[in-house]
Specification:
Layout (H helix, E strand, L loop, with lengths): L3 E6 L10 H7 L6 E7 L5 E2 L5 E2 L3 E2 L9 E6 L14 H9 L4 E4 L1 H8 L13 H7 L14 E4 L2 E4 L4 H11 L5 H13 L12
Parallel strand pairs: 1-2, 1-6, 2-5, 6-7, 7-9
Antiparallel strand pairs: 3-4, 8-9
Length: 202
């Protein structure tokens, strides 16, 4: 089976938990997806939780003709460093080719500062936070105060919405749908799946 790649862009100080639910689900056997990482270079990146990751690709040598299904951008302290904003080129490529982009926490602030949020419904850590951190942001009318928002080829979430973010990604990529997706979400959100009448043996 031909595996579709899902790219995760990482920086030093990336928020490892923000994409952990969804990458574990996407990388399961039988989904048809393979998760790979990218950074501005091939040097190891250390997450906020102390996990060291060797990127599969660097922006310098990334083949822009490579067919991939989605770009996921976790937040973290790395977005305070301008050098990581080089990924703007890849984000532009995704928007131009209708490849979904999913960003969470400070990664949404990065997108906002470069105009990527202005034309789509979106969210972030808060509207005030977004406007303060992204002085070029002009998307006020499209801001929605929710944990995660999916609109067209854009998924955005605030820093406390990793589970909702993951749910929107799984739905967008058709990995889980309808009842199966709701049960997956309930399991991680509530710690159990409610037993309904149809599950009770008589």
């Amino acid at each position: 089976m031909c595996m579709k790649k899902v790219m995760v862009f990482i920086t030093d100080g990336f928020a490892d938990w923000e994409a952990s639910y969804v990458t574990a689900e996407l990388n399961k056997q039988g989904t048809g997806f393979q998760v790979q990482t990218m950074a501005i270079d091939k040097h190891p990146k250390t997450s906020m939780g102390g996990l060291t990751v060797l990127p599969d690709y660097s922006l310098k040598d990334f083949p822009f003709k490579l067919d991939f299904a989605m770009l996921i951008i976790p937040g973290g302290t790395g977005w305070r460093e301008k050098k990581n904003h080089q990924v703007k080129k890849l984000v532009s490529f995704c928007f131009e080719h209708n490849i979904p982009v999913a960003a969470i926490c400070d990664a949404t602030t990065f997108l906002g500062n470069y105009g990527f949020l202005d034309q789509n419904k979106h969210t972030g850590n808060s509207l005030a936070y977004l406007k303060e951190g992204a002085p070029n942001y002009r998307g006020d009318e499209n801001y929605i105060e929710k944990q995660s928002v999916s609109d067209g080829c854009l998924i955005t979430a605030n820093g406390s919405g990793a589970l909702e973010f993951s749910k929107d990604i799984l739905n967008k990529l058709n990995v889980l749908k309808s009842k199966e997706l709701e049960e997956w979400y309930a399991l991680f959100k509530n710690g159990f799946i409610p037993i309904t009448g149809e599950h009770i043996e008589k």
